[in-house]
Amino acid sequence: MAINRTGPNMNAIAAALGVSAATVSNALSGKGRVSPELVEKVRAKAAELGYVPSLAARALRTGRTGVLGLVLPDIANPLFPQIAQAIENAASNAGYGVLIADSRGDIAMQTEAIARLLERGVDGMVIVPRRGTRIADVGCPVAVIDTPSTPGNTVAADHWGGGVQMGRHLAALGHRKVLLIGTNTSSNVQNDRIGGLKAGFGAGIECETLWIEKVEAVAGEGCPLGLAEKAATGFTAFAAVSDLSALRALTELQRAGIGVPEMVSVTGFDDLIWSPVVTPALTTIRMDMATIADLAVAALIRVISQDGEAEPAASGNVASETDRVPMQLIVRQSTGAPNSHALQPSNKPTAGELKS
Amino acid sequence: MAINRTGPNMNAIAAALGVSAATVSNALSGKGRVSPELVEKVRAKAAELGYVPSLAARALRTGRTGVLGLVLPDIANPLFPQIAQAIENAASNAGYGVLIADSRGDIAMQTEAIARLLERGVDGMVIVPRRGTRIADVGCPVAVIDTPSTPGNTVAADHWGGGVQMGRHLAALGHRKVLLIGTNTSSNVQNDRIGGLKAGFGAGIECETLWIEKVEAVAGEGCPLGLAEKAATGFTAFAAVSDLSALRALTELQRAGIGVPEMVSVTGFDDLIWSPVVTPALTTIRMDMATIADLAVAALIRVISQDGEAEPAASGNVASETDRVPMQLIVRQSTGAPNSHALQPSNKPTAGELKS
DNA sequence: CTGAAAGCGCTTACAG
DNA sequence: CTGAAAGCGCTTACAG
């Protein structure tokens, strides 16, 4: 029966050249020892005919699909675009495709998503686990991107170190009473960031942590966080562990007539899309997603390639020693010295440092 | 040579049951006429053995991979999570996997991304084109998600209709002078939204469009938009055609000491993640991405399934009659009657309607 | 350096 | 209702 194949296959090239398919294969892959002239002829003919290799056939034969899975806790997460873009880029540079799977925040769906990818024969997967989840052996090489303090983590941003940088920045500006804002007490990433912030503050800075999940458990979703009241009690900086919370804080404070950064400073994490866009632009910490993705994909590919060889049919976490990728502080207008000029909100933003 | 296959194949089931592989195949697929008892036995044995079909083999044999490609103009786009999640969901419900490809804003890369997906043998693709791009015949069924007014569009939100709803909402509140805010003059989506807004205003509303790209071309990226000055000249509402611009407007106005919604109203489009989170929460228009994705995937699958049959080796845009999916107005606190109470900014948001 | 042959796991006419 | 056989397009020992 005729199959949906549009272009020519290896046999067509072989026939056109009067050589064997094996030679075409070897010439194209550069594996077998084929004479340079023949290699050239084969390449030329392949190009002329518009040959496109059948990845399905190759997969069937070699047992490798050349596809990596990307499992995300919740695609709707605003950090997702950065992650997906970086992984897709790293993978396609390495000649791999990326199949996505969304666990939609649910642990059961995470398991199901992993199973779906496995059925599709991915050679390995990158998993950004749902918080608290420990990824068991899934039956193929796995790179986990979470936080360096998470057991089984493969590669991650140095969230703690990022916190330290931000903590020092605020300390250097002269803040002495800082409100930390987190959303979720069980997030390793957030806890690391908070730990780093406190370490960066050093002695002499008083701080308190506000968990939004707890506020909302009492007052309902989207309720005010009471930040104006906090400012009234002497907090001069609000350090959120995510840009979304920082945005929430910034607008709540602005709406209460509290000038940022003249009266209080606000900081975030992750440099999400709106951070440079809001007024005042948000001081934040950026992850080097490109590097993280490169390391994750490289680790995966290393294991995948070994898999053919020697002893271990590696099919678990590729963590060995965790890679810890530095984060970068981005100072924008939302931070300044505390009460440097306790003016009424004006429409002239202070100059501030701007490092892009 | 032993291949990377972990589990049993059809032959294993066939052997265990003393039947042929063909029968196992027919029983499992439900295609051939196999006796009910045998079907049951085959299913049981498959489950017992933990049989997982080889999609690579099936693909090689049938010419279908069961994978759809998703091409995005720029994964970093904040709308992307919604799109990707919806497409992934629709596809996986239909038994398809989703391979992503990012054109990173570049037209050449868009072409390359499409080629990569094609090489991987996707059965079809969903393309969200870069603005202005017209997708040529790519060699497989394609569903284009852009805007109903775009030639070749397959399915899209009714951006114009959404604009109309928002226009009417502002008109009903009593606004008479509205500033429209767009980023890009060549975006079909944005032009449709603006057209709808104007239509929704009807007569008696004065409006003007501010294109951010033009402002920035002169004043540089991230510069103030001069909205406070606009408010001073009598504009009481600022209708952005994206939530990101709305956020920019909201914070710029707040920072200038202009109360939203007491003094001016601000609206966005798309109901992105931060819209319900900022203070005041943003009135916006939501796309029904789930429906759009379902329609796009369904259209693709319809063509893919026909492909085996009769005449046309369909390999182009699956557009025939464009589906136009209604958008939904979400009224939150950022809109109110103009100058209803020209108070100083207070820290008590007005109650406002809230429709979630 | 080159080729003949086998086989990856499945599906599909076709014959029985 | 069931099975034998062919073949999708490739790669890989192996022989020459």
From TrEMBL, chains A, B:
Superkingdom: Bacteria
Q: Where is the composition biased (Polar residues)?
A: 334-349
- Return the Gene3D superfamilies for the record: 3.40.50.2300, lambda repressor-like DNA-binding domains
Query: Where do the record's region annotations for Disordered lie?
Result: 334-356
Q: Where is the HTH lacI-type domain?
A: 8-62
Q: Which UniProt keywords apply?
A: DNA-binding, Transcription, Transcription regulation
Q: Does the keyword DNA-binding apply?
A: yes
Which Pfam families does the entry mention? LacI (PF00356), Peripla_BP_3 (PF13377)
Give GO MF terms, alphabetically.
Answer: DNA binding
Alphabetized InterPro entries for the sequence: HTH_LacI (IPR000843), LacI/GalR-like_sensor (IPR046335), Lambda_DNA-bd_dom_sf (IPR010982), Peripla_BP_I (IPR028082)
What protein name is recorded for this chain? LacI family DNA-binding transcriptional regulator
**From which source organism is this entry?**
Neorhizobium phenanthreniclasticum
